[in-house]
């Protein structure tokens, strides 16, 4: 299987590189496989990763292992602060996808000095991992969406980043960046900061209306109003692994959003709110209707705060989207913690 390398002076270093990267790729695949098995409970993804890991293992031959020299490997003492801590499962997955992809690239290049068909196989495996990354991260996003009960929709504020981070520190799982005024140069800077913060804390980050901005900052998805892009168009642009939500105010709009393939819906405004000036409140009856009829997660929205949350939960709304109650809170961390605790204690009317 392993013909002589091109030069005696490069043979040992190349074998060491191949050995190290085979280890690295297989270790990364094992981490991803374990999450698909135990975290996502997804048989097909687990099977694909296991097959890749075992296929790589067939090339990890005794002569490559014999080239290993761990005591004299200068790389074992080199580390980086980012490697010392992970703050979310998403970070663990992303780090290990990068590990596998980088290892496969090195195996492909140095494998050309070792065996051509091995290098070609590594190239194909790398493409498979790119596809699996989109698929697995999509499953991870949708699982997080199913579990999320508190949803912050931002409003303009000079300290928006600080407010969002404080809410995230309280366990907030989902943020939507909503900014109707200003310029795109400012929007994209803030969106990138908020996306990075959300992912640091293991939360999902969506952008209101703007599919282009969502693509630019690699957001987890978008939230669309009734007058925004058709969901099919947004899906074509974003891909199947991103979340798309739609605002609805009545059963007819809900039915249309579901038929279009919305991953979740907003239900409201439950109460009159300055966020939606001139729009009549949909009321608690629509929350009750959604609780009884929506097959996808729905978030009650519109004027909801700590004082009226019990009414919303009694109507079946155990997922809520909040604007002012968090954006204008003196202590967003405490408010997030309180709301999440109360929502978790509610009977699971709507959650799948």
From TrEMBL:
Keywords: Magnesium, Metal-binding, Thiamine biosynthesis, Transferase. This is Thiamine-phosphate synthase. SUPFAM superfamilies: Thiamin phosphate synthase. Pathway: Cofactor biosynthesis; thiamine diphosphate biosynthesis; thiamine phosphate from 4-amino-2-methyl-5-diphosphomethylpyrimidine and 4-methyl-5-(2-phosphoethyl)-thiazole: step 1/1. It comes from the Bacteria. One of its GO terms (cellular component) is cytoplasm. Its cofactor is Mg(2+).
């Amino acid at each position: 299987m392993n013909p002589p390398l091109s030069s005696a002076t490069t043979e040992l270093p190349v074998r060491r590189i191949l050995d190290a990267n085979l280890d690295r790729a297989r270790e990364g695949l094992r981490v991803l496989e374990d999450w698909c098995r135990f975290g996502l409970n997804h048989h097909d993804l687990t099977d694909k990763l296991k097959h890749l890991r075992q296929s790589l293992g067939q090339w990890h031959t005794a002569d490559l292992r014999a080239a290993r020299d761990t005591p004299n490997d200068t790389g074992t003492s080199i580390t980086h602060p980012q490697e010392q801590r992970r703050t979310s499962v998403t970070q663990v997955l992303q780090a290990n996808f990068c590990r596998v992809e980088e290892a496969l690239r090195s195996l492909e290049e140095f494998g050309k000095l070792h065996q051509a068909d091995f290098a070609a196989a590594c190239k194909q495996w790398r493409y498979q991992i790119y596809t699996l990354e989109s698929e697995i991260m999509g499953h991870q996003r949708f699982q997080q969406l199913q579990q999320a009960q508190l949803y912050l929709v931002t409003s303009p504020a000079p300290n928006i980043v600080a407010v969002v981070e404080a809410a995230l520190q309280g366990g907030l799982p989902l943020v939507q960046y909503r900014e109707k005024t200003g310029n795109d140069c400012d929007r994209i800077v803030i969106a990138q900061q908020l996306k990075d913060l959300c992912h640091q804390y293991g939360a999902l980050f969506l952008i209101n209306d703007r599919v282009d901005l969502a693509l630019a900052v690699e957001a987890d998805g978008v939230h669309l109003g009734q007058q925004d892009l058709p969901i099919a168009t947004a899906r074509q642009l974003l891909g199947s692994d991103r979340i798309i939500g739609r605002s609805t105010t009545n059963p007819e709009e809900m039915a249309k959003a579901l038929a279009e393939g919305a991953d979740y819906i907003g239900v409201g405004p439950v109460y009159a709110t300055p966020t939606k000036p001139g729009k009549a409140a949909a009321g608690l009856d629509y929350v009750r209707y959604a609780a009884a009829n929506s097959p996808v997660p729905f978030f009650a929205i519109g004027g909801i705060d700590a004082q009226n949350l019990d009414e919303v939960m009694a109507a079946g709304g155990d997922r809520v989207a909040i604007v002012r109650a968090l954006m204008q809170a003196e202590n967003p961390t405490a408010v997030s913690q309180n709301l999440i605790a109360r929502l978790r204690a509610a009977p699971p009317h709507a959650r799948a």
